[in-house]
Each structure stands twice: as structure tokens, then as C-alpha cells.
Design brief:
It contains 5 helices and 2 strands. By secondary structure, it is mainly α. A hairpin with an 8-residue loop joins strand 1 and strand 2.
Length: about 110
């Protein structure tokens, strides 16, 4: 399942940090490696996992392979999160209705 692969890739904090950096714009492997205390090959392995999960894309530009976020790869995550948000919002709306009804009942008991 694509979501499982994406969430497995996102389980690593370095990969999440790489995605956060790529949210600001395209970057090369060397640019992505700068803030981390790991080797360039280690960053390349992280990028391979992110690419395999469909979360990033690479293109060839001369001797570099800049990376960028993949809108198509992030779309299933966004859809899943939207579904969770809608469900939670509906649950909170029902809770608000119950609490309002309880409040109305208490006000009725006082009069």
C-alpha cells in the first residue's frame, strides 16, 4: 500500500527534515546533506527511500540530480489526513452538541 510505504519513509526524522527542506524548494544532494552530521552517501540512501515511497522526484541537470517534492506522491497522504480531520471535526461537533444540550438541561433545572 502506498500510504504504508510513505509513512514508513516518514518514520525517520532525517527524512522528515529532508522533506521539510524540500518544501522550501528544489535542492541537490550536497545541499541537503549540509545540515546533517552524516555522509553524502547516507543522505543519498535517505533520498532513495523517499523516492521509492513516491514522496520526492529527481531530475538530471548536468552532473547534479536536484530533488523536489512530488505533488502526486504527497496527494494520498493529504487525502488520508483530510479524511482524519473531517472525522475528528464531526466528532467534536457531536461533542459540542452534547455539551450544549447538557448545559441547556442544567439551566432548565435552575429555574
Amino acid at each position: 500500500m502506498q500510504l504504508d510505504t510513505a509513512f514508513a519513509a516518514l518514520a525517520d526524522p532525517t527524512r522528515r527534515a529532508i522533506l521539510a527542506r524540500l518544501a522550501k524548494g528544489e535542492a541537490t544532494v550536497m545541499e541537503l546533506a549540509k545540515p546533517f552530521a552524516v555522509t553524502q552517501p547516507a543522505i543519498s540512501r535517505h533520498l532513495k527511500v523517499l523516492e521509492g515511497a513516491g514522496l520526492i522526484e529527481r531530475r538530471i541537470a548536468g552532473t547534479t540530480r536536484p530533488c523536489r517534492l512530488s505533488a502526486a506522491g504527497l496527494a494520498p497522504l493529504e487525502a488520508w489526513l483530510d479524511q482524519i480531520r473531517r472525522t475528528m471535526s464531526a466528532n467534536y461537533d457531536r461533542l459540542d452538541d452534547v455539551l450544549a444540550a447538557m448545559n441547556d438541561e442544567r439551566k432548565g433545572d435552575r429555574t
